[in-house]
Amino acid sequence: MKRMLHARWLAILVVASCCVTAAVGAQEAGIDLVTKANQWKASMRYDALSSTGAILRGGDLVRFKLGNDLFVLGSGELLRSAPISQQSGQLYIPAATAAAIESWFARRDAERASRFSIAAILIDPGHGGRDPGAIGEHGTGSSAIRIAEKDITLLVALELKKRLQAMWPDKAILITRSDDSYPSLDERVAMGNSVKLGPNEAIIYVSVHANASFNKAASGYEVWYLNPDYRRTVLDPSQAALIEPGVVPILNSMLEEEFTTESVFLA
């Protein structure tokens, strides 16, 4: 899109919440991280080249860098605690740090149990008006039927809007067009950015298309999310001001990966 989406958008989902949590504890040998991840019923991966890793428990992601006392929790909360270390090829997490992460997991569980974090869903039927999108013809001769993508996407989007409104009457279910009009890309983005969000709330932006293919046997559907190679500055400037400049790009990269992970889950 010509205009960049607000940082609260994760391709199709962003949860914006930034705060810093501090955990104080003495340096110690720690607990085997793989064992601890198993206790949390979480998966753990570590990239030796970049010395960065992640702990994934359901939809909750904790990002860390070996030897660094700053951890990224979820969509932007920062935890400063004793760093993860490596001994004989094994990763170890200090007990105080493990306790702080467990506390965050508990808070996340409580948040999910108490409320929704999605404030609105914006449905965007692709194309429209002067832009027909892909064109298909079914049949031959005088019985041939010409179908434009813009008409299919509008029908699908209107039906989706009706079903979502029936399922979640308390949520704002919006649509970028309800007829054969053509909102520009900038206008579509502006509709999403104009939604007023409260703390920890997000908007889901769903763009509907009906692609064409030269392969007549092609069928099924695709779900797309933001390419991880698309780099953005997503770290809150007020948070970045409190962090050593050399660490800011690392944290930004961690948050970008968190946003991509959230988008994958949603997709």
Describe this structure in words.
The radius of gyration is 23 Å and the shape is elongated. The two termini are about 20 Å apart. It has helices at about 35-40, 95-115, 150-165, 185-195, 235-240, 250-265; strands spanning about 20, 30, 45, 50-55, 60-65, 70-75, 75-80, 85, 90-95, 120-125, 135-140, 145-150, 170-175, 200-210. A hairpin with a 4-residue loop joins strand 5 and strand 6 (about 70-75). The chain is built from six helices and 14 strands. The strands form four sheets. The chain has a six-stranded mixed beta sheet with strand order 1-7-6-5-4-3, sandwiched between helices. The protein has a three-stranded antiparallel beta sheet with strand order 2-9-8. A three-stranded parallel beta sheet has the order 13-10-14, sandwiched between helices. By secondary structure, it is of the alpha+beta class.
